[in-house]
Amino acid sequence: MTEHVQVQAQGLNVVEAVNVTQTQMDFTADAVVIGSGAGGAIAAYELAKSGKSVIVLEAGRYVPAERMTEMTAVSLGTMYADHGGQANSQGDITILQGACVGGSTVVNAALCFRTPDHYLRLWAEEFGLTNISTEVLTPYFETVERNIWITQNEAWESSPGAELIKQGMEAAGNPIGHAKRNVKDCALTGFCFAGCKTNRKQSMLVTYLPWAQAYGAEIYADTRVNEILSENGQATGVTAEVINPDTGEKVADMTVTAPIVVLAAGPIQSPILLMKSGLANSSGQVGKNFACHPSLSLTAEFDEEVNDTVGATHSVYMDEFVLPDENGVGGFILLNAIEQPVLAGASQNPGTGRPYVNLMERFANTIRLITLLHDKNSGEVTYENGMKSINYTVDDEDFESMKEGLKVNARILLAAGASKVYIPTTLSRVIESEADVDPVIDALQNERSRYPYTSFHPQGTLRMGADPATTVVNPMGETHDVRNLYVLDASILPTSIGYNPSETVYALASYISDQINAAHP
Ligand SMILES: Cc1cc2nc3c(=O)[nH]c(=O)nc-3n(C[C@H](O)[C@H](O)[C@H](O)COP(=O)(O)OP(=O)(O)OC[C@H]3O[C@@H](n4cnc5c(N)ncnc54)[C@H](O)[C@@H]3O)c2cc1C
Known about the structure:
The protein is of the alpha/beta class. It is built from 13 helices and 24 strands. 28% of the residues lie in helices and 21% in strands. The strands form six sheets. The chain has a seven-stranded antiparallel beta sheet with strand order 7-16-17-18-15-21-22, sandwiched between helices. The chain has a six-stranded parallel beta sheet with strand order 1-9-4-3-13-24, with helices on one face. A four-stranded mixed beta sheet has the order 2-12-11-10. The longest helix has 20 residues, at 396-415. The mean pLDDT is 94. Bound molecules: flavin-adenine dinucleotide (FAD). Flavin-adenine dinucleotide (FAD) binds at residues 34-40, 57-60, 96-100, 103-105, 107-112, 193, 224-225, 264-266, 269, 273, 456-457, 489-490, 500-502, 505.
């Protein structure tokens, strides 16, 4: 493995639609990278550093810190896939993904976990991924942790709500996990989801992308790849369109001819691109095995004001029950989160009309604790007649796990001193004492469109493994079917991992980049 020496960032020089004057642009490069998020940015840096000419094509806008606003409604519109409205086909799970230079890393909450050993062992046993053992990946985790400043929160970074939740976990007898995040000198505003206006979050926008550019990588924003090209079973480049994001009008067509194609458009767009290109699907698994960690957030109301508005977005977690049971079912993790009223009001469903106003008037008295479900890979992304669908519902088994999580969550909040705990459902359920927890939550049914789930972690869809009959990408990150077509984003995770996945993507992208450099010296 190569040692990753940091180079000084030179600032980011991105070609945007407004800078493009030609209507046709044709380039050649050693490698073309599709998407500039967690996977794409790391590939761009590692490949450029090894001396390759690299072109990065990003469908989303370039939004540097000075153009960010600390307004969730604005950032949803400008920096998220489908303006923040991406959802499953049933419409009850909002599936959030960043769509901007730097991808989801620009709008994420920066909470980081190494891939659990449990999964690295399972992937070796069930998917033949003996090459990504804990021993092999540990130096990659260490490097990326050093490079993007993944460190445990300092005590002073905790929020008032997190402190109450810690007390609740202690009183309820649950272990307390202390967050690690990739944020340097956090300003503690809690606006992570709108992008970090002061560039303290060490997202790809301010780390790997400028470093890649310092080694010569070129970055095009507003540029959507439409097709991956191949000849004789070997990738040869891509075609793309430059679209003005304000008018929706096409500005230019683009081709990039390159012997190495790196696909890192994320777990929804990467399989769609393979489907559009008619590539790499001899297994029939492209788009299948979708998981997304659906989450529900309980809102706790206290008699006194808590003012949970200053602090790290995430400070504490509880992972005692994160792994599936002996039958492979379920699991959940609990995460505190500072949320601004716009997001909290939208996702936590405190009713409408007077009930909504009542709760929002007492917003200063409330805190939130998220239950994030460790779901099965049961969904599928499809693309037909120019339309994408994310066919995925929380099944009955996973719903029972969610209920277990909500119970633990509610008990922690009550133990923290909450007088009321609100369950986000159209039935407006409220828990007011320990005695309510089981009866109220046991009564919840897995009814369609009843719960406003949010997903921050789409995964799967191009899973990695040794068997070309059941997986899309081989253990080195190359598609089984097309030589020199590599995938290194959250699509390749063979199973849902239960924990927030960014560090897993960072480490796997670094590992696969080394494999690409070894195969193409
Ligand atoms: C609001 C939010 C909060 C999150 N919080 C956390 C957290 O605290 N901790 C954690 O571990 N994870 C978190 N995540 C998830 C984490 O950021 C992602 O798992 C990770 O970034 C996935 O990396 P990726 O490379 O697969 O995709 P992304 O980082 O999403 O990058 C994919 C990029 O590809 C671009 N693209 C798509 N299609 C095309 C195309 N056709 N042509 C060109 N470009 C294209 C997209 O615009 C996007 O910029 C969060 C995500 C969100 C949205």
